Amino acid sequence: MPTANVVQPATVEPSEVERFCSNIADAARDRRYALQAEELKKLQAEVDKRIALLEERKTEYETWLKRRELFLARAEEGVVQIYAKMKPDAAAERLAALDVELASAILMKLDARKASVILNEMEKKSAAELTRIMASAARREDPS
Description:
The chain has helices at 16-85, 88-97, 100-109, 112-121, 124-138. By secondary structure, it is mostly helical.
């Protein structure tokens, strides 16, 4: 019987470059992960620094806001007292020259008798506008 030529696959030897790459693959991956972890730590530190700065500024802003609100409350109280001590005709004249919302806010904080006398001294149109604003502000539900 004749023997058939059987082609046997040739064993391919990996090249030196392939062997080198396969030998250092794990070390390269570990180094890459280490570099990424280091970069993440730097980014986390930067984020933490920014958060701390924002918290500091938030605290400063809240302190400033409290001081401002206290000042405005004191100033508002002083303004109301000034108008409470004025003669009704003079107060009516001054309030008519103010912004209607500010004037109505002042009138709402005055004693009802004093406010009514001042409104009586005003022109009908101004008094009606201020009364409308005060009535809408006194409503419990949202007028819109």
